[in-house]
């Protein structure tokens, strides 16, 4: 899927940075969480943006799963109990034909052996574009966009919530708040790429 040179040249912050760090600062202050991970650094116009564009808009589901398997090699079954992908609103999923976060999460699950749970966290509200909004404004817009359908399936588990990109962290926080309200377990976040 990726040539050897590209695999080595793609900018990576390291999945296991000491907490707190520049990624965790995007999430601090609104909900309690355990850890936050990012596989790539996102830069406007860079190779990582091109990869994300292929996964998100060009139907490259296999590329998303492949990148997930690359991430999954760094995790063991003992670290998390379940992997949950960031959901898309049903209309967006119909339009795109798939959920890019689910592709990445499937790859992580397959490689790590951590179970994958796709249909419990849902997005029941489609919002207008978040471009130009700060973290607090994005969070307020997304606050009621997510729902946990079966809280008992998540209660007490170590949950890894996976998405393709983290910009301000507001989407992770809004979805994470619903998970935290439904579960007494630990919540962590993983983005394929994070904007510094």
UniProtKB/TrEMBL annotation:
InterPro entries: ComF/GntX_DNA_util-trans (IPR051910), PRTase-like (IPR029057), PRTase_dom (IPR000836). It comes from the Bacteria. Belongs to the ComF/GntX family. This is ComF family protein. It comes from Aquirufa novilacunae.
